[in-house]
Every structure is written in structure tokens, then in C-alpha cells.
Amino acid sequence: MVLPVVLVIMLALFDLGRAVYSTNTLAQASRSATRMAMVNQNETNVRNAAIAAAATLGLNSTNVDVCFKKSTSTLTTCGTTTDNCPQSSRVIGCFAIVRTHINYAPMTPVISLIWPTLSLQSTSVASIEYVCPEGTSTACP
Fold this sequence. Notes:
The chain is α+β, with helices and mostly antiparallel strands. It has one domain. It is 39% helix and 18% strand. The chain is built from three helices and three strands. It has helices spanning 2-39, 43-53, 109-114; strands at 64-69, 95-104, 118-127. A three-stranded antiparallel beta sheet has the order 1-2-3, with helices on one face. Helix 1 (2-39) packs antiparallel against helix 2. It starts with a helix and ends in a 14-residue tail after the last strand.
């Protein structure tokens, strides 16, 4: 009678470990992509840096949001179009914002009945240190 309870607890701990691993991997991916965006503002390169840093999660370009905001902006999300820092007027001090997100599905049947999916995300914000000239991304660091 105790064995099923112990098994469910062990599997739930396994799921918790997977969720923590996924969260940490998302955080590392967003930080890695933000480091790329600090010196190279090519959005494709930034997305690819995030995807490469979280290969075990199966990230793709739809799971990575990249945007740039003015240094006076208080926004830390990419969904809004206000306070954008477009390539034509980008200067040192603009913010590079990278958000990575996935839907995590627990493997344990009991846990997946309670929480079928959990939305995990991580956002990283950094100040641009070098403005990469548009059209010359091969010359950027």
C-alpha cells in the first residue's frame, strides 16, 4: 500500500528536477543571447545564440523574443511597440531584451492531471555596448 505513494512522490521529485533544469536552461539561454545582443544587434544571430544555449529544450525561433528599447524605457517586455530603439537610431545605452519561453509538460500522470502544462520563461536585459552597423554583421564581434 505504501509503494504507490512512494513511487508517485519519487516521480514528482523527478518532474520537479526536470522543471528546475528547464528553468535554469531558459535563464542561461536568455543571458547568452543578451550577451550576443550587447555587441551584435542582428536579431537572427541573437535568436540563434539562445537556441544553441538551450538545445536540450528544443527551443526554436518562436520561443525567443528579441527587442531593443530606449535607455529611458521602463518596459522589459517585447510585446509593446513603445520605446523601441530601431536600428537606424540605436546608440550605446539602448537596452537589449531577450525573453525565452516554453510550455513544460510534467511526465508523472498524477502531476500532469493537476498541471497539464506550465509556462516557463526567462527574461534578460542588458545595455548595448557596441552598435553593430546595419548590413555588416560579419564585421561585428
